[in-house]
Every structure is written in structure tokens, then in C-alpha cells.
């Protein structure tokens, strides 16, 4: 068994010496990478990331990352050249970000969208470097490119400084599509709310129709006039009967069973026969304040 990682003591200008657990640095690195996998907007139009993380200690990266490709007393460097290497490395790191990820992919879901329509996947050529300067300050830098892929299979490569899409060979495109679809399948199996288009790319027509019914029901609910005394908030409030279990680490979903029943809820059914209580996967943050969640948490202790 590997020895337990020791916390790192760092000096804070205002608080003196503070202790930071090694695992916290791994989560910080994972979140920095995941949040940089974004849709095309602002500085992210090029689909490239140049991340700079000051004050990350050398010991933290040595304990959280694989052995560096090159190492000197002042510099450590890593490089994952192939897409396969990148995917293998990130499959263990990215879930620590707490976001919806799988392999080298992050699911991008806008707050206004009930389903996931775009996936961002890192390409080969991921580079990391940790440097200790002459004055003792430390910094970790991370550089990579990524592609975006939409629900209809449209693939968008990164752009060069002239805002022209980088050319990809047919074999590169085929490999990227294969990796993205494999990651999408993993996300779907973990309970991520993929759009109908994504389910059809995966060859799952049943799940595609369920997702379409889900979207149709949501639209019908938006268009139905409110009754006297009813508000949008009360209309969209439903009682959770019980929490049935937890989801994969990194997605933060919980399976819940809803109290009552209505035929329109069939669009959300995950299992069981029509007419029986509905169970769905919900984000932990949306159910954690309920009595059902408190009861489930207490039962796990």
C-alpha cells in the first residue's frame, strides 16, 4: 500500500503558515482544466487554454501527477502527445473537478438548457510545466487544445491566431469522434441529461425518444396558462418521496423517487412499468436541502 500523502505547509502573507491537503491541489488542477473546456466565446474562441497556477508547490504536483518527462531542481515538465494518453490521464483527474466529465471530455450545459447539446474534448499534445524561480516562487502552467462537438455530430476544431480552423486529417477526425462518442456514452450511463441528438449518435433511439418527450413536456408546461393563485414556482414544485442512491463520483447526481404520479411524468421514467412511481437522476445540489436527502444521508452513516 502506498504511504498516505502528507499535507503541505505553505506560508500565507496574512495568516503565517497554513497547511493544505495534497488532495486539494489535485482538485484545483482538475477544476482549472475542466473550466477551460468552454464553448466559443470571448477569449475561448480559439479553443485553446494557457493556464497559469501560481503557488502550486512542487511536492503537490509530484504526488498528484505521473512521473515527469523531464526533471531538474527548478523545473518539471510533462507531455501527453497522443489523444489516448491524454484521455487515460484525464479519466482519473477530471472527475475531481466536480463537473460532468468522462475521459478527456466535459459536458457543456447552459443554465437555460435542460439537456446537454455540446461536448468539449481535449486533443493530444497536453503540456504541463512546474517552475521554481530564483526567488523561491512556484508556478504550474498547463497548455492544451480542444475540439467542440455538437449533438448533430458537427465537429469544430481549434482556431489559429488568424481565427482559421486548424486542419485535421481524416484519421484525426475519426479518432476524435470515436473518443467523444465513447465519453458521451459514459456520461449517459452516469445519468447525464444528453440531448436526443446525442442519444441518436450513440444508436439509442429509446433514450432519444425519452429525451424528446422530456423536452416536449417542459415546453408544454411553459405554455400552459397559470391557474388562479398559481405561480411558476409552485407549478414546478414536486415532492421527493425518497432518495434511492448516489451517482458516479464527479457528476454529483442522486437517484430520487417522486411522491405521487401523473401520466405526463412518464417522459422522465428511467425504470419500472408505466403507472408506477417515477425515479430520476437529479443533481445533488437541487435535492440536498430536502428531508428525503437528509434521511438518506443519515442512513449511509
From TrEMBL:
UniProt-recorded name of the protein: Uncharacterized protein
Domain of life: Eukaryota
Amino acid at each position: 500500500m502506498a504511504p498516505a500523502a502528507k499535507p503541505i505547509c505553505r506560508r500565507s502573507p496574512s495568516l503565517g503558515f497554513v497547511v493544505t491537503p495534497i488532495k486539494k491541489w489535485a482538485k484545483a488542477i482538475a477544476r482549472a482544466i475542466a473550466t477551460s473546456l468552454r464553448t466559443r466565446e470571448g477569449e475561448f474562441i480559439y479553443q485553446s487554454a494557457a493556464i497559469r497556477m501560481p503557488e502550486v508547490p512542487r511536492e503537490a504536483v509530484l504526488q498528484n501527477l505521473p512521473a515527469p518527462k523531464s526533471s531538474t531542481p527548478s523545473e518539471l515538465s510533462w507531455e501527453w502527445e497522443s489523444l489516448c494518453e491524454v484521455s487515460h490521464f484525464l479519466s482519473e483527474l477530471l472527475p475531481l473537478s466536480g463537473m460532468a466529465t468522462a475521459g478527456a471530455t466535459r459536458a457543456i450545459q447552459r443554465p437555460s438548457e435542460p439537456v446537454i447539446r455540446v461536448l468539449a474534448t481535449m486533443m493530444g499534445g497536453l503540456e504541463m510545466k512546474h517552475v521554481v524561480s530564483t526567488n523561491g516562487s512556484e508556478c504550474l502552467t498547463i497548455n492544451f487544445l480542444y475540439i467542440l462537438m455538437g449533438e448533430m455530430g458537427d465537429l469544430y476544431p481549434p482556431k489559429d491566431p488568424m481565427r482559421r480552423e486548424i486542419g485535421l486529417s481524416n484519421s484525426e477526425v475519426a479518432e476524435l469522434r470515436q473518443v467523444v462518442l465513447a465519453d458521451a456514452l459514459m456520461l449517459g450511463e452516469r445519468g447525464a441529461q444528453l440531448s436526443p441528438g446525442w442519444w441518436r449518435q450513440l444508436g439509442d433511439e429509446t433514450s432519444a425518444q425519452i429525451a424528446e418527450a422530456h423536452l416536449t413536456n417542459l415546453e408544454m408546461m411553459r405554455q400552459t396558462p397559470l391557474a388562479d393563485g398559481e405561480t411558476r414556482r409552485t407549478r414546478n414544485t414536486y415532492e421527493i418521496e425518497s432518495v434511492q442512491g448516489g451517482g458516479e463520483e464527479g457528476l454529483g447526481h442522486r437517484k430520487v423517487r417522486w411522491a405521487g404520479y401523473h401520466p405526463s411524468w412518464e417522459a422522465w421514467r428511467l425504470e419500472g412499468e408505466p403507472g408506477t412511481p417515477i425515479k430520476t437522476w437529479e443533481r445533488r445540489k437541487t435535492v440536498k436541502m430536502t428531508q428525503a436527502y437528509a434521511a438518506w444521508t443519515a442512513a449511509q452513516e
